[in-house]
Design brief:
The complex is a heterodimer of chains A (about 150) and B (about 130). With about 150 residues, chain A is mostly helical. Chain A contains 7 helices and no strands. In chain A, helix 2 packs across helix 4 and helix 6 runs antiparallel to helix 7. Chain A is elongated. With about 130 residues, chain B is α+β, with helices and mostly antiparallel strands. In chain B, a hairpin with a 6-residue loop joins strand 2 and strand 3. Chain B is globular and about 30 Å long. Classes of the chains: A mainly alpha (about 150), B alpha+beta (about 130). Chains A and B meet through helix 2, helix 3 and helix 7 of A and helix 1 of B.
C-alpha cells in the first residue's frame, strides 16, 4: 500500500480514538479474537470431517451449521481486524508476518470458494474433499499463528 | 474407528494447547529477566497509544538505542505521564526488566524517573 494512504489511515480520527482509548481498543481486540475463535473453531471441525473423521455424520448437515458460523467469524475478524490495522497501519504494513498472514487469509478464502465451485463439477471426489480440507486446516492454523506472532516480532 | 477418532481428537487438542502456550509465554513479564534493570538516556523516538507505548532511548553509556515498553494510555495517565513529558530529547531513567535474550535491547518499564520525579507504571511491583 502507498505510504500516503497508510499515513492518512493512521492519522484518521477513528485511528487516533482507538490508539488513545481505554476500553474501545481492548473491546475491538476482543471482537477480533471472537471472530477468529468462531472461524477457526468451526472450520477446523469441518476440515477434520472432510479429512475423514466422524464419517458417520453427514457432511451436508455439518456444513449447514459450521459454514455460517465460520463465515460470521471471518466477517467479524475482518471488520475488527481492519480497525486494529488502522490504529497502526504503517507498522503492520511493514511487518513481514502481517503480510504473510494477509496472503494466507486470501489463500484460505480462495480455497473455500474454489472448493464450492469444484464440488459442483466433482461432487463425489474424495480427493477434492481431502485436498480442500488439508489446505484449509493448514492455512487457517497458520493464519492464527502468524496473527499471534505479529505482536512479538 | 472409535479409537482412531479419539486419537485424532487428542492430537488436535494437544496442537491447540501448544499454540496457546506459546502465545501466553510472551504476555506479562515471563519474557523478561527477574533482575531489576536500569537505563538512562534521552528519548529519540516515541510511539504512544494502544496496545502499549514505546520509547526509543539512547543509552547514556554507549549511545546505543534501547526500546522501552511503557503502558497503554490508561496506565500512563494513571502514572502521571503525558504526551508533553514524553517528547523527543527528554532525559529518562527507566527502571524495569530487560528481555531474557541478551541480543534484544528491549526493556519493559515499571517506573520512569524524569527530572527527579517518579512516574510509577506498576505501583504494586518493586522497582
Amino acid at each position: 500500500m502507498e505510504a500516503g494512504v497508510l499515513a492518512a489511515l493512521e492519522g484518521s480520527g477513528l485511528a487516533a480514538a482507538l490508539r488513545g482509548s481505554t476500553w474501545l481498543y481492548p473491546l475491538v481486540n476482543t471482537a477480533h479474537v471472537l471472530g477468529v475463535a468462531l472461524l477457526v473453531g468451526a472450520i477446523a471441525a469441518l476440515d477434520l470431517r472432510m479429512l475423514g473423521l466422524w464419517a458417520e455424520l453427514p457432511l451436508a448437515v455439518l456444513s449447514r451449521v459450521l459454514v455460517p458460523v465460520a463465515a460470521t467469524g471471518l466477517a467479524l475478524a475482518v471488520v475488527a481486524g481492519s480497525l486494529l490495522f488502522a490504529a497502526g497501519a504503517s507498522e503492520y504494513a511493514a511487518s513481514p508476518l502481517f503480510r504473510a498472514k494477509m496472503a494466507l487469509v486470501a489463500l484460505g478464502i480462495a480455497n473455500a470458494l474454489g472448493y464450492r465451485l469444484l464440488r459442483r463439477r466433482h461432487p463425489e471426489s474424495p480427493t477434492l474433499l481431502r485436498a480442500a480440507g488439508t489446505i484449509s486446516l493448514a492455512t487457517w492454523l497458520a493464519v492464527l499463528t502468524l496473527g499471534r506472532l505479529i505482536g512479538y516480532f | 474407528m472409535q479409537r482412531r477418532t479419539f486419537l485424532a481428537q487428542a492430537a488436535a487438542a494437544a496442537a491447540l494447547c501448544g499454540l496457546a502456550g506459546r502465545a501466553r509465554a510472551h504476555h506479562g513479564w515471563a519474557w523478561a529477566t527477574e533482575k531489576e534493570f536500569e537505563l538512562t538516556g534521552p528519548i529519540k523516538a516515541v510511539r504512544l497509544g494502544n496496545p502499549h507505548g514505546e520509547l526509543t532511548l539512547g543509552a547514556a553509556d554507549d549511545g546505543e538505542d534501547w526500546l522501552v515498553e511503557i503502558g497503554q494510555p490508561w496506565r500512563n495517565r494513571r502514572a502521571g505521564l503525558t504526551d508533553e513529558i514524553l517528547k523527543i530529547g527528554t532525559e529518562v531513567t527507566a527502571h524495569g526488566h530487560r528481555a531474557v535474550d541478551p541480543a534484544q535491547r528491549l526493556v519493559k518499564a515499571e517506573r520512569l524517573v524524569i527530572a527527579g520525579k517518579d512516574y510509577n507504571l506498576y505501583p504494586d511491583r518493586t522497582s
